[in-house]
Amino acid sequence: MAIRTPIDALDEWFKPTSDKVRMVRKKKGSTLKSIGKSKPVAGALSGLETAKRVAKKTPQVMVKITSTSKGMCQTKNHLDYISRHSQLELTDQDGRVITNRQGVKDLKDEWRDYGVPEESTKRECFNIIFGMPDGTSLAGLKNAVFEFAEEEFAGHKYVMALHEPSTDEKTKNPHIHICVVATDAEGRRLNPRKNDLRRWREGFAIKLREQGVDAVATTRRQHLKRRFPEKFKTRKIREREEINQKKSRKPRKYKGRPDYGNANIGATRTAQRAAALYQSRIAKTEIESAPKPITSLRDLSGLSLVSGQGDKRGGQVFLHSDARNHLGREGKPGNGVRRAGTGAAGAGSRAGRMKQFEKQLQVGAATLIDAAKVIRKKDKVSAEQVKKYAENRVPNRGRDR
Q1: Which segments of 44-165 are extended strands (E)?
Q2: β-pairing verdict for 21-25 and 90-92
Q3: What domains are there in the chain, each with its CATH number?
Q4: Given a cut of 90, is residue 259 above it in pLDDT?
Q5: Element (DSSP H or E) covering residue 32
Q6: How many CA atoms within 13 Å lie on the side-chain side of 185?
């Protein structure tokens, strides 16, 4: 039996991809068929090299499926968006550059003839972003994305567009949009999963390193990061609220005093009646929603309606009078039936997940520190960087595993 060394544990911690089967549906109405397992990308870094780059805070690649298009109607809008209405050039799968409005129109007609319907209930196109931080070589970024797409999306039709600060004022970090047709020439459809996205990130990082751009692709757990990334929709809502707050701070200019004599009396009375009716309904709801004893129910433990603390009060419980409206088809309770805060914080709850994630971070920090002790004799500088990085990210690391 081979002895497990700290370097082996480090390779296991930064293991590239798992063996998850990709499933596709070849034709409408047919069964799902496997097209092979997601294998580790050739040229991936070892665990030690990845740890050194993570400790040096090497830029992380960004690969994200922003949206999907169900039909040519939505695809047209996305092509206009990534080309900024034909102001930015597009590059297709054959290397052809499209620079004008007529070229974009011909591309849309070509995809229609290829088989993309005008409207569909399926995902006909995938919209993907490949990005890097500001300061990245634009030529290296573009060549890396083109080579990656040429290998990964072989047989599919796609176009890409480069967004960078000098040509697009709305862009902060350089990135490339790719719009890929889901169905290839043989009728197979793309069906990306989380494991495939991780493999795409690793492949994109390899192509960048081949172009001389240092990059790494690790998960949040692997580089010991607790903070969740801000979602795209959440960021847009926050930015919109900040803009509204700035507008509300500006003093309003009124043109004279309001003339109350010209007020619409009918509309005012209608609003008053609506408010009175609303208040009466609130009062009626408060009276009807009072908890009432239901003694006719027995053996509620099988329905998971309430969670007791070890008592044997099977039917002596209190439920809302409209509890039956919250039950599903199979008798499963909804959120309106469960009591707030009942039950232990199991593995499925947020607290349970965070606790499990914290344990994983402690294991990863201890793995990095153990590997730093081994490489100290050969590379003292890198060993100190790896150790310091792990100690700063997880101060209360668990040494006993």
Answers
A1: 62-69, 90-92, 97-98, 125-131, 158-163
A2: unpaired
A3: 8-17+44-58+350-401 (no CATH), 59-215 (3.30.930.30)
A4: no
A5: strand 32-37
A6: 7
